[in-house]
Amino acid sequence: MADTGLEGRRVRGYFAAVNRAAGVPVMFDPAVLGRAVEMPAPWVDLGWCSGFKRTSATTVGAVVTGAPGVAGAQVRTAVGAEVSFCFETWGRLQVALAAGAQSLNVLKAGSGAAANGSGGLAEAPVGLVSGSTASVLMVGSTAGFAVGDLVAVDVDYAGQVGFVGTGVSGAYVRSSAAVGGDVNYIRRVTLNVGRVAAVGVGTLTLEAPLMAGAPSAGMQVSAMVGFCDREGGSFFQEWSGLFVLDGEQGDRAIFHYPRLQAMEGSREMPVAMGGGLERVRLMGAFRALPVVDGNDGETCVCFRSYLPAAQ
Predict the structure, then answer these.
(1) In this structure, are strands 277-288 and 136-138 parallel, antiparallel, or unpaired?
(2) Is 187 helix (H, G, I), strand (E, B) or coil?
């Protein structure tokens, strides 16, 4: 069986959060989902990726024996892989992935808060009442909220240490003192965010469901104005990545990286559009980390699957 070669147009990118506390990535099984038109949760569709480039960082060395030395065998002396591309759209997850470090929500600052590069101390959050869903937030009061507002939904910070953030680990807290004991800190780093599509009597309806699903007991809502990332810091986000290239003849190539971490700081690429305008795209470069293949116990960093077209 031989094909004429994969003739594809664009690569579609999907990401899913690695469970940092348990160290468990999201595995993609091509036997089950290889032909899926849309990838199911927890995979999140982040749109088209341009300039997609895969690089192998694996090195092979010779085992030399005898005199004179003769290469009698080969061994892999290092195993690694890198992947880079540009996101064609901007959004909360695209900004976070391309940040190269920790990504934060810019919460609305409270009255008299001192100026700070990632946003001053936030105003008081609004509590949720029973009956909230991933798409409709039941709040005690909608005062101060309007259609188009951004909101962060998560639990209060109450001295937790370790990875924090519901659904996705947005930060690692070493001590309460390190974050100033700020009750809003988890909402500052959470990726459980949304945009208000409608305001009702005691309800905020979101444009899309929250990434972490229906809010749990104890969660509150903080209004926010946007997102922020920093050059520097100690935290590395970690994601499972999936890239799909559909061929013109019905074949498909799938590149699965169970564990990806950013390998450089944030940067953008301007693309000329004519008329003196430029489109600015987010650039991301990632290093693949290892997993063990359950079929044979081999350590690897990525999987490439090819599904031929039906004959």
Answers:
(1) unpaired
(2) helix
Residues whose CB is less than 8 angstroms from the CB of residue 167 and which lie 6 or more positions away in sequence, other chains included: 17, 190, 191, 192, 210, 211, 212, 213
Q: What average pLDDT does the structure give for the chain?
A: 93
Entry pTM: 0.90
Distances (CA, A) of 304 to 56, 96, 107, 293: 12, 25, 40, 13
Domain locations in the chain as residue ranges? 11-100+236-307, 104-230
Bridge partners of 120? none
Strands (E), 201-263: 203-206, 219-229, 239-247, 252-262
274 Cβ contact partners less than 8 Å away, ≥ 6 residues apart: none
Instruction: Look at 132 and 10; give whichever has higher pLDDT.
Output: 132
Query: How many residues appear in the chain?
Result: 311
What's the CA gap between 8 and 6, in Å, rounded?
6
Per-residue pLDDT tens over the stretch 43-58 = 999 999 999 999 999 9
Percent of the chain that is helix, strand, coil (3-state, to 5): 5, 45, 45
CA 60 to chain centre: 32
| CB within 8 Å of 190: residues ≥ 6 apart | 105, 152, 153, 154, 165, 166, 167, 168, 170
DSSP 311: -
Per-residue pLDDT, 311: 74
CA distance readout (Å), 19 to 25, 249, 286, 303: 6, 37, 18, 20
The Cα–Cα gap between 63 and 50 comes to: 40
Beta bridge partners of 262: 286
Segments in the chain forming alpha helices (H): 30-33, 92-98, 185-189
Tracing tokens 């799938």 back to the chain, one arrives at: 254
- What is the fold of 11-100+236-307? Pnp Oxidase; Chain A (2.30.110)
